[in-house]
Amino acid sequence: MAKDQIEAYAYWNQGTVEYSRRNLAALEKQMTPEQIAAGKKRTKELKRELEDKIYENALQKELAAKIAEKPDRK
To answer: Which residue ranges of the chain lie beneath pLDDT 50?
Structure first.
């Protein structure tokens, strides 16, 4: 259960809307200080993972667009 709370913390902590903040506050009440610290660490890791995926997706789209622009060489 603790691992699930840490992962949930990381996802809720990514959110900026009030709904996310309320859920994060409710979750913190069920967690130990150590779990919250682990959740904050996981938040940073998750943010990096998401940024990497967004960057990779953008590169793939850029490459696909360049390939589509090139005329067939036969």
So the answer is: 1
Six-digit token string for 1: 């259960």
Nearest to 49 by CA among 57, 38, 60: 57
- Among 29, 24, 22, smallest CA distance to 9 is for 24
The structure's pTM equals: 0.63
30's torsion region: left (phi>0), alpha (psi -120 to 50) or beta?
alpha
Tell me which amino acid residue 22 is.
Answer: R
How far is Cα 48 from Cα 43, in angstroms, rounded to an integer? 9
Residue spans of alpha helices (H) in 1-74: 2-14, 18-28, 33-69
